[in-house]
Amino acid sequence: MDVRPLTEARGHDIATWRYPGPYSTYDVGEVVTAADGYWAVVGEGEDLVGYCCFGQEARVPGVSEQHGTLVIGYGLRPERVGKGLGRAFATTIVDFAIDEFSPQQLRMLVLSWNQRSRKVAEALGFQQRAIVRSGKRDFLVMVRPVSSRS
Hints:
Blueprint: E1 2-5, H1 8-15, E2 38-42, E3 48-54, E4 69-76, H2 86-101, E5 105-111, H3 115-123, E6 127-134, E7 137-145
Parallel strand pairs: 4-5
Antiparallel strand pairs: 1-2, 2-3, 3-4, 5-7, 6-7
């Protein structure tokens, strides 16, 4: 997998993705763009595997910016969720973030009920530091220092 600039066509594709059950909270529902800070994650044959975003676009309301810390957000294509791709997908994104932005620390905000995302974050060295409430949802604040690539 590789992280690439997001094309307009891929942004339109992402807007149509629908996740089942409680995961529907991850439905983007609008066209995301490279100008908004979104990137495409592609696999073999340029297949769109998912997307990622960093900084302001990945932050949830009520969680402040922290100097030297880069917030990472991502979404895996719905039909690929639960197929064992999470760790490789997230590793690709984390490694790209380190190379592209040179942060001192990385942060992910994971919905408290999302055990799949929590396990992926922990496998990549993220540790839970806090729980924050944004709107009616609780998020785990997961952080890791940037000592090396994943």
